[in-house]
Amino acid sequence: MHSVEYFGYRGFLAKKLMDLGAKIGDLVVVKKPGLVAEGFLMPREALYGDKPILVLKLSNGYNIGIRVDENTAVEVMEKPRKHVLPGKRVVRGVEGKPLPRVTMLSTGGTIVSRVDYETGAVKPALSVDEIMEWIPELGGIAYIDAREVMSIFSEDIEPRHWERIALEIYREFEKGVDGVVIAHGTDMMAYTAAALAFAIRDKPAPIVLVGSQRSSDRPSTDSAFNLKAAFLVAARAPFAESVIVMHGETGDTYALAHRGVKVRKMHTSRRDAFQSINDKPLAIVYPDKMEIKVINNIIEHRDKSKQPVLENKFDDRVAIVKAYPGVDPEIIDLLVDRGYHGIVIEGSGLGHIANKVIDSIRRAVEEGVAVVMTSQCLFGRVDLYVYSTGRRLLEAGVIPGSDMLPETAFVKLSWILGSKTRELKEVARLMTTNIAGEINPRLTIDTFPRWRY
Amino acid sequence: MSNKYSELGLKVGLEIHIQLDTMHKLFCKCPTKLVEAGGEEVFERELRPARSELGEVDVAALLEWRRKRRFKYYAPPEASCLVEADEEPPHMVNREALAVAIAIAKALNMYVPDEIHVMRKVVIDGSNTSGFQRTCIIGLNGYMLDGERKIGIQTLCLEEDAARKVGEEPGSVHYKLDRLGIPLVEIATAPDINDPEQAERVAYKIGQLVRLTGKAKRGLGTIRQDLNVSIRGGAKTEIKGVQHLYLISKVVEYEVVRQQKLLWIKEELLKRGVKPEDIKDTVYNVSDVFAGTKSKILRRAISRKGYGVYAIVLPGFKGLLGVEVQPGRRFGTELADYARVWGGIGGIIHTDELPGYGISDEEVRALYEKLLADPSRDAIVLAADREDRSREALKAVAERARMALQGVPEETRAANPDGTTRYMRPRPGGARMYPETDIPPIEVTESLLREADRYVPEPLDTKLKRFVEVYGLSRGLALTVLNDLRLDLFEKLVEKYRGRLSPTLVASTITNTIRMLKGEGISIENIDDRHIEETLDLVAEGVIAKEAIPEVLAELARNPEKSAREVVKEKKLVSISIEELEKLIEEAIEKNIESIKEKPQKAFNIVMGEVMRIVRGRVDGRVVAEHVKKKLFSLLRQ
């Protein structure tokens, strides 16, 4: 079926508008029995393009939808004037004061936007000028350079993208920057943060991932506050680890710098969705006071003399399987038969899965597939010695994931298989070695959230 | 007189916001109620508007942004959730609210679009946590009849109410989130209204129409009225927040006078040959002129570090600052408003009111000398505050003075309780609006229209018929009730007290009793629906007699926070029993036995008078009369 598409409109309405030569922003008049409406033609959201409804912006700013059929007359009255954009104010670092140099690499997602009130479109604004115009306070924190390295929804990010991002960061380190900020979609941000912790060894400066939970076109966006905190951490933090910087609580009071290998997105929408699991955050950040309060041990310290080493190959044949009642052992068999190199299991409790699956796991290990056990409880450490099922799993060759998050174990396994080795004994050794803080040998009482009733 | 107003070219438009009494808020499942108790979460935020494509900034928004404020939000869990905290995307538009809004639009003969689009209207004064208000247009191009005339109803919008301000401290405004998200219908008329009484009438009719759907919230703050007023040669002034219906005509009258007076001032300035370039922005530090002053205000400013006394010259303005433009408010008051809003200072002092405030003639002379101003022609305005604030304030004063040469500036003003108005901010530019993309457009389907039909108000003649034929009201009383603001309360209470209280009593209480109390000087605007209902509850329960109603309501008007039960207890208005009554009658007869024997024909009056004095309000007068007669009868037989 041939379907014409025109600015989101489809079918006969699309054809009607095309024939009129009507463009978005044109002043049009719509006449139907009982109605004469005048307004600016607006685009239609593609998802709703099937209905023959014309969207107009009225002179009072409101949009309405008018159903169009054969009896509806549509006329173009006026074309819009071309707007001359006023010269933009360029604000860079404060002159005379030597400031740290920080590069922001954007991977997609609009952490800064402009709103076109005429069409209602929200457009990304990622140039340094646009960022500085919106957050002039950054001028007191660092000299900023900004560029886009990819433009992708974070839910579409794959291991090969981590390889690319790591390479770009490595290049920045070679240039001698004092910190790198990565603007990233929040959905998969923790995965990327973990990947970068492993992909570059001996980092001279911090890698700071930042995103926004509330879109940046809205005045209440968490984006500006997060960016201020992120740039501050990138410019001044005493650590050189891969971290995520986001709101620490719902108010705009403090941000937290979480170790990338220990952080997880724990809420679909809240500003303080990112929380450290089985560890404390590295630091509390007060961007308005320009203060970074380190509250945990630093594993990699900032040191410009360090020579970073790039180990950025990731294996994309790794899967995560969740344990649940009735989980079919065939799922493991299928993965093995499809040539997967690694499987991370989100086991139940201390790291268990139904006993009937153990045979398939044994077979996988025999075929050279690394199987790592973590817990879907997220909090706490797996221990396969306590119960018989756990012991059977150990016997079958499962690698215990300690207190690693399933997501972090997935990234680490992918990194080991891609950059280090596929030899199972070595995989097991590396998996159980603490490389970037992903394993916390001491879980104190206060590393579990408290709900208030 | 409407003639006078039509000569002046008076045009008034109304914008009425009425809260809807729906089960849930407009974009989430929270109840639509206000919460006073503590125990809430509190958090702080800043708002930062995104750049617009054209790099323009809305003038009113610029003012807010310059104030650089933080906002503190109180989030009671009984009436707010993550949506109000801007921590969760909005849910689908409340269908009940949609249906009610469509019903009202249809009752106002409006066109309802085939598809409704929710928009984001940028608001950065902190009253919306997201930095915008979600609003959608439900009706366009309707009308209502006022007698023979058609008053155009331009738009009907369904939108969320804002958070309510609960406090302020330097650099921070505090809001509570219980009100945020309650559905509002906003009805805007065309400027077809031409006199103050008509404005009040149309406002009343619109309010009544919405109340008749049965879905309007009642009580203080549930209805907000804004007016647009202009006269020929003047300017369209937006007046926000006229709290009471009966203030509307007064506000319009005063605004007409204000604009006329400002036009007169413009003419006077032209006569005096004053030109805009004569009014300079130069602000002088005149602290040394007042080094030895007796004025406390000025001394305080001079003694503080970073503070001082500053001045600006308004050439040709002598005598004009003292001109009254509203009852109790002069042109100088207008300048003070600008100083307050733009500079953040408490007020100004100007030469039209000097000598005064402890400032002497000599100091005034010295001031004119220092500033090289002409005491017979020029006015000088002083600010005594921190330097930066004083300078901002006086620059704003100069700007306002320049505007005076053009006549009436376009402003947004706030209504005061006495009907006068004060400057609030410049009129905003075109609303910064863009689509709310978290919510898909809503198709107005047949099923939605049918749901809306349920709320279309019953025609008034149908009601009249029912009131007379079924409820037994007299036609006069029925008409009075139909025209009362509490019509919907009447219908609700008649159902509630079916079989226990007569509809006539309910109607009479709501209309005649209230009117009577007003006549006695009681502040009836303090009487809420709940006061009336509680009082009638007590009558229905037999706790008080209907005679007690006026006294209970009067006491509640004086102490609105009390309950009817408390008042009845305090004032000992509880009904007395028949035994008590009989005892009182016997006592009264005994007391007056001599007079009764002397003038038996006056016996009834004497005893009635005595007993009623004691039991007034606590028992039906007819019951008393009955028992007095019985007692006297049996006495006579003896």
Poorly predicted segments of chain B: none
Number of domains of chain B: 4
What is the largest interface, and how many residues per chain? A-B, 56 and 52 residues
Q: Give the % helix of chain B.
A: 25-40%
Count of beta strands of chain B: 23
Specify the CATH architecture of the largest domain in chain A.
3-Layer(aba) Sandwich
| Strand residue content of chain A | 15-25%
- Overall average pLDDT of chain A: 93
Order of strands in the sheet with most strands of chain B = 21-20-13-12-1-11-8-7-6-22
Secondary structure category of chain B: alpha+beta
> Mean pLDDT of chain B, as a whole number?
90
Assembly category = heterodimer
What is the helix content of chain A?
A: 10-25%
Poorly predicted spans of chain A: none
Strand content of chain B: 15-25%
CATH topology of the largest domain in chain A: Rossmann fold
Kindly provide the name of the CATH class of the largest domain in chain A: Alpha Beta
Number of domains of chain A: 3
Protein topology:
The complex is a heterodimer of chains A (453) and B (638).
Chain A: E1 5-6, E2 9-10, H1 11-20, E3 27-32, E4 35-41, E5 53-57, E6 63-67, E7 73-78, E8 101-106, E9 113-116, E10 121-124, H2 128-134, E11 143-148, H3 159-175, E12 179-183, H4 189-199, E13 200-201, E14 207-210, H5 223-236, E15 242-247, E16 255-259, E17 263-265, E18 274-276, E19 283-286, E20 291-294, E21 309-310, E22 318-322, H6 330-337, E23 342-347, H7 358-366, E24 370-375, H8 388-395, E25 399-400, H9 406-420, H10 424-431
Parallel strand pairs in A: 8-11, 8-12, 12-14, 14-15, 22-23, 23-24, 24-25
Antiparallel strand pairs in A: 1-2, 3-4, 3-7, 4-5, 5-6, 9-10, 13-21, 15-16, 16-19, 17-18, 19-20
Chain B: H1 2-8, E1 11-19, E2 41-46, E3 51-52, H2 59-66, E4 70-75, H3 95-107, E5 115-116, E6 118-122, E7 132-146, E8 149-160, E9 164-169, E10 172-176, E11 183-189, H4 196-211, E12 223-230, E13 237-242, H5 248-271, E14 284-285, H6 296-303, E15 307-314, E16 324-326, E17 329-330, H7 331-343, E18 349-350, H8 361-370, E19 379-386, H9 387-404, E20 411-415, E21 421-426, E22 433-435, E23 442-443, H10 446-453, H11 460-469, H12 475-482, H13 487-496, H14 503-519, H15 529-541, H16 549-558, H17 564-570, H18 578-591, H19 593-598, H20 603-615, H21 621-637
Parallel strand pairs in B: 4-10, 13-20
Antiparallel strand pairs in B: 1-11, 1-12, 2-4, 5-23, 6-7, 6-22, 7-8, 8-11, 9-10, 12-13, 14-15, 15-19, 16-17, 18-19, 20-21
